[in-house]
Amino acid sequence: MESQRKYPRVYSFEFFPPKSEDGAAKLRRARDALAELKPRFFSVTFGAGGSTRERTYETVCDIQRETGLQASPHLSCVGSTRQSIRDILNAYRAQNIRHIVALRGDLPSGMGRPGEFRYANELVDFIRAETGDHFHIEVAAYPEFHPQAPSATVDLLNFKRKVEAGADSAITQYFYNPYAYFHFVDRCEQLGLDLPIVPGIMPITNYTQLARFSDMCGAEIPRWIRKRLEAYADDRDSIRSFGEDVATELCQALLDAGAPGLHFYTMNQAKPSKAIWNNLGLGRPA
């Protein structure tokens, strides 16, 4: 973990593009509540196969214009061509967007091939070739390994390729075992990789939803957490209270060990992330 201690802490929050006017209003409320915490940036996801391309762009521009805080769009290989990525990069540059999360992305059902970019390192390399150092590029890291990786070693080498292609920092998939993160960082250090690796944090508010997400992305829910959540059944207040305690303890352990910040997967809700923030006594980071 020594490589991570030297970096200033960065706090950020992730949203997904709304699908309706009600969803847009909900996002604005969450965004404005979290903007009070003065995070380094807000990121906005990119749907499978580029399905939210326009809504991602609109959401990113709205966030940066209306909050004055940095907005960071996700870009995905899947469903993208070199020209389409070139066009969107130019559009973001015109809006003074300077931060990007570059991902391989998920293949939608029925899509057999990802597109002109097969892997995230190819996308990172293209962004660097097209725009130089204009964008700060985030990439994904998987402490518990990508579900499609044939082995832990292959997954780590895939991450190494993204770093060598020009990534500035990384955000991890969410996890609930801090030792998975510690071990991942240690292995990166053994490979000579030296960049901020910020833990991704998923607040627990809905067990059914969390279990579904975790099964899809390969994030492990420790058995003791699963059993406690199952025992609460439909008692949402108890689930939220227990989930808040679990996430707060996880975040504190990560920060105590030297993690360079936290990235919250908000699901377009402010209260769960804000409760954890307040429990940690983070205040307003410089």
- Provide the helix percentage: 40-55%
Order of helix and strand elements from N to C terminus: HEHEHEHEHEHEHEHHHEH
Number of strands: 8
Instruction: Using the CA coordinates, give the radius of gyration.
Output: 18 Å
Query: In total, how many domains does the architecture comprise?
Result: 1
Q: What is the CATH class? A: Alpha Beta
How much beta, percentage-wise?
15-25%
CATH architecture: Alpha-Beta Barrel
Strands ordered across the widest β-sheet: 1-2-3-4-5-6-7-8
CATH fold annotation: TIM Barrel
Q: Name the average pLDDT.
A: 92
Largest sheet descriptor: 8 strands, parallel, barrel
Q: Helix/strand-derived class?
A: alpha/beta
| Overall 3D form | globular
**Gap between N and C termini, in Å?**
23 Å
Specify the oligomeric state: single chain
Number of helices: 11
User: Low-confidence parts, pLDDT < 50 over ≥5 residues?
Assistant: none
Overall description:
With 286 residues, the protein is of the alpha/beta class. It has a single domain (2-280), classed as TIM Barrel (Alpha-Beta Barrel). 48% of the residues lie in helices and 15% in strands. The protein is built from 11 helices and 8 strands. The protein has an 8-stranded parallel β-barrel, surrounded by 5 helices. Helix 3 links the parallel strand 2 and strand 3 (70-76). Helix 9 packs antiparallel against helix 10. The two termini are 23 Å apart.
